[in-house]
Amino acid sequence: MKLLDCPMNGPRNIDEFQSFGPLRQGPDADAAADAEWARHLFRADNRKGVVVEWWRHVPSNFFFLAERDVVTNEIIRTYAPGSRP
Amino acid sequence: MAGLAMRTFPLSPNGSAAEAVLPNAQLIVTDLTARSRFGIKGPGSSAWLEAQGLSLPPVNRIAIQGGVRLLRLGSEDFLAIDDIGAGGAAAKLIADWQAEKDPRGYWSWREEGWSWMRLSGQSAEAVMARLCALDLRPARFADDEIAQTRVAHLEAVLVRSVGGFDIFFDIASTAFFIRTVDAAAQLADGDTTTRENHR
Question: Taking the model in full, what pTM does it have?
Answer without folding.
Answer: 0.89
